[in-house]
Specification:
about 375 residues; alpha/beta; Quinone Oxidoreductase, Chain A, domain 1; 2 domains; seven-stranded mixed sheet; six-stranded parallel sheet; 12 helices; 18 strands; binds NADP nicotinamide-adenine-dinucleotide phosphate
């Protein structure tokens, strides 16, 4: 492959090449196994457009959505702008924490050197572009690794608790999937809203969920949260894919169910059928049954930043993998081993002796 810069083929001088290229994870086709479809390569740095910044990425992180974007499954995700037949973006990374390197046209409120965190495209790389609408100044008290764990999962948890669950002080809140990326934030946020929180997770993660402030923890391998003993004002269903009837049994007659996610093998709908049924049923019952797609916005990142800086919220970082082990990081989450978030750190560039191949960086 030839050297390229910003997607254009050509041969810049060696010194310029070093300045204008970067190490990045690259994906050419959709596939379910990260080890098969991801590789590391030397590629062109992206250029920020109007309303965007180029970020020197210090860390990124993995969530379940990383796999969906990488695999192109379920199929509707391809229609959501990630590429119909092959991935539109160079890699499936979306979270980032780093420093602004360059600012696109139009004055964006950020200047080179600013530490930021948020959501961009192809963030498993030394440099990535992010819209200013989906980044914010990084929490002063966090490391890059910790800040990179926050964006997608933290925003999702905040909106689930505050906007869709409408959690209020004193309410009984059940968080199913309390030990994962979204769940570890959701438990803490529901506590920050002064709710009485019950977390559901597997045996080895009970201590973690309790340490986040959960008042009660149910080990789903030993007990059933829908055994009729307790009903909840709000249920946040983040993991496990419980049947709708079970969830409704555990909900008070006027309670709110928020279906955040849940993994299935369905290639066509991937569990979304459960969410559709909930929405169809909701008008015919006193219970509110709903779902949502998280909004990526800087105002909510600022809210999270305030909570993090005030020590009312912690980013639970399980494992940290270097960039060239991004596939292993995704595998860690896929295998259900993650306790909180899995982070990908992007070390300073190794200039000499790099065993990396070149790639025609025609994707962003
Ligand atoms: N709506 C949105 O906009 C949005 C945004 C982000 C994510 N999501 C979705 O939210 C879901 C969670 O994402 P994530 O990144 O937090 O994933 P994750 O880190 O892998 O966490 C998954 C959670 O599910 C739990 N779980 C697995 N089997 C379970 C069972 N049988 N019963 C109860 N809990 C079980 C796991 O707990 P144990 O291992 O302890 O069992 C873990 O806490 C995914 O489906 C993702 O696609 C949706």
């Amino acid at each position: 492959m030839t050297n390229t810069q910003h997607g254009k083929r050509g041969g810049p001088p060696a010194a310029a090449t070093e300045r204008q290229t970067m190490r990045a994870v690259v994906q050419d086709r959709y596939g379910a196994a990260p080890e098969d479809v991801l590789r590391i390569a030397q590629t062109g740095r992206p250029t920020p457009g109007a309303g965007e910044v180029l970020v020197r990425v210090h860390a990124s992180s993995v969530d379940r959505g990383t796999w969906h974007v990488m695999a192109g499954l379920p199929y509707p995700i391809r229609l959501a702008g990630f590429g119909l037949r092959r991935p539109k973006y160079a890699n499936p990374g979306r979270n980032l924490a780093g420093t602004v390197d360059a600012v696109g046209d139009g004055g964006t409120g950020f200047t080179p050197g600013d530490a930021v965190f948020g959501i961009g495209t192809s963030t498993f790389a030394e440099y990535a572009v992010a819209p200013t609408a989906t980044i914010a100044a990084m929490p002063a008290t966090l490391t890059f690794d910790q800040a990179a764990a926050v964006p997608v999962s933290g925003l999702t948890a905040l909106q689930a608790v505050r906007d869709h669950g409408r959690v209020r002080a004193g309410q009984a809140v059940l968080v199913v999937g309390a030990s994962g990326g979204v769940g570890t934030f959701a438990v803490q946020l529901a506590k920050a809203f002064d709710a009485e929180v019950t977390g559901v997770c597997s045996t080895g993660k009970v201590d973690l969920v309790r340490s986040l402030g959960a008042d009660h923890v149910i080990d789903h391998t030993r007990a059933d949260f829908a055994d009729g003993r307790r009903r909840y004002d709000v249920i946040l269903d983040i993991g496990g894919n419980a049947r709708l009837a079970r969830l409704r049994r555990a909900l008070t007659p006027r309670g709110r169910l928020v279906i955040v996610g849940g993994e299935t093998d369905g290639r066509l709908l991937g569990g979304v059928d459960r969410q559709l049924r909930a929405m169809v049923l909701s008008p015919f019952t006193g219970q509110h049954l709903g779902t949502f797609v998280a909004s990526e916005n800087s105002a909510d990142l600022m809210t999270l930043r305030e909570l993090l800086e005030a020590d009312r919220l912690t980013a639970v970082v399980d494992e940290v993998y270097p960039l060239d082990q991004a596939a292993a990081a995704i595998r860690h989450v896929l295998d259900g081993r993650a306790r909180g978030k899995v982070v990908i750190t992007v070390p300073e560039r190794r200039v000499q002796g790099s065993p990396l191949e070149h790639h025609d960086g025609n994707q962003r």
